[in-house]
Amino acid sequence: MKTSWFDRLLLAGAVLLAVLWVLPLAWVFVLSLKSNAVLMERTDALLSTPFTVANYADILANPAVFRWVLNSCVVAGVQTLLVLFLSSLAGYGFARCQFRGQRWVFAAVLAGLAVPEPAVVIPLHRFFAELGLHNSYAGLILPRLAAPFGVFLMTQFFKAIPRELEEAALMDNASRWRIFWRVILPLTLPAQATLGIFSFLGAWNDYLWPLISATRPEMYTLTLGLAATQTNFAQSEGLGFLMAQAVFAALPVLVLYAFFQRHIVAAVAGGRPA
Q1: Which CATH code, of 3.30.830.10, 1.10.3470.10, 1.10.10.10, 1.10.3720.10, is assigned to 63-229?
Q2: Global pTM?
Q3: pLDDT digits over 212-233, tens only?
């Protein structure tokens, strides 16, 4: 089958956009392999030698880094699982259950998307301070469990599932909970993967709330801990070390995306993964 000139033009445009998207990432990675002394002289010789892994060795030389990685894994992992569970329950309720004021409640949930994070930082800080939850995993996780986008995504996905599946299960005397858990929820794997990626990415890269809630170094997340190790002149005198920190912090997210990429593509396409 011959391809038209229009298809070739679209392909060329897609390749060009992909290259433009990858170039900054490649630039960051290459700079992370350069010594700070070399980068203080020039930053344009990206492909010239010498290369070094000293910047990564400096990161791993700090024993607190492993504690920060553990904190980020616990916070991001538990938060993602709870967001998936709560958003799925709420989405199924809005999609399948009829109750008084349903539209108003759903509108109130979506209104949370319009609330900027800095507007609620002070009330959250005072609330968790009164509960004594700062410098704890609960204090880092609980504020992010309210996920209006997750509720909206799961609601729309549940609405797209035919009701005949539930009706057939009801005829077999299956309970509502069993229908949700055994029949409907497995069909939402693409949406679950997409929401999980966004939730994990947001939790892993979160900086503002850990900066407020975690005041002890042993409770720092990776983003907060790496920022704490930077000097006032990190962007000029420690550029290679700064770029190595960025690559080191991004690796878990890239690995996670590589594993769930087909589910994300299927969710965007509106189908099931192959």
Answers
A1: 1.10.3720.10
A2: 0.81
A3: 999 899 999 998 988 887 765 5
